[in-house]
Design a protein that fits this description.
This protein has 213 residues and is mainly alpha-helical. It has one domain. It has six helices and no strands. The longest helix is centred in the middle third of the chain and has 31 residues.
Length: 213
């Protein structure tokens, strides 16, 4: 039961993020999903910032909990290996750092003087991106070796490659009128990977290696 609940966190989290982004854009006058980044919804002075920050924090915590579910699963299988444990730990760390971004270090509003919190937001966003990329890659290697989820290792490598390309494209589009759109493509690629893994883990919640959890 514990494993199933943690796995469900990985199903709910991506959906909650998409809900927050759509809702935030709908209730903020003049906001564009093509031009504006998601982080702008949580910038100081933004309409409904507290409400949206609560949703984003819930998303980040659900991601961290799902990471714990991945870690428990790996540790309970016969194929438990450091590379998988490290990958799951990085996934958890990325979720927890996202909590800090939502609550303590929001993005500065565009055109405003830079602040310490805003600079930290940029730096921590880079750390999160690196952790997620490494997590996807390491977990992909683990699944490929474990042969538990056929094809997921290859899918993870493709996802990691897509993330690298999309990060470069996003950086090129910084300040461009389609910056928000490029960011959303990047985010969706990562969320889809999480959603696929979570659905599989939910469907496999009766796996023998999980029964004692």
């Amino acid at each position: 039961m514990k494993q199933r609940i943690l796995s469900m966190c990985g199903v709910i989290a991506p959906l909650l993020f998409v809900f927050m982004a759509i809702l935030g854009g709908a209730i903020r006058p003049g906001y564009s999903h093509i031009a504006n980044t998601v982080s702008e919804l949580l910038s100081p002075g933004s309409p409904n910032r507290l409400f949206l920050s609560i949703i984003f924090t819930a998303y980040a915590l659900l991601m961290a909990l799902f990471g714990i579910g991945i870690l428990l699963f790996i540790r309970r299988t016969e194929q438990s290996a450091p590379i998988g444990i490290i990958g799951a730990s990085m996934f958890i760390a990325a979720g927890l750092i996202n909590v800090a971004i939502a609550t303590v270090y929001p993005q500065d509003p565009w055109g405003s003087p830079p602040t310490f919190a805003g600079e930290m937001h940029i730096n921590l966003s880079g750390v999160i991106g690196l952790l997620q990329l490494l997590s996807i890659s390491l977990l992909g290697i683990w699944f490929n070796r474990a042969r538990i989820f056929p094809g997921f290792g290859a899918y993870s490598f493709l996802t990691a490659g897509a993330v690298i390309l999309l990060v470069g494209f996003f950086l090129m589009m910084a300040g461009n009128p389609i910056m928000g759109f490029t960011e959303r493509i990047l985010v969706v690629v990562g969320l889809l990977w999480t959603f696929v893994l979570a659905l599989w883990m939910v469907s496999r919640s009766s796996y023998a290696g999980w029964r004692s959890l």
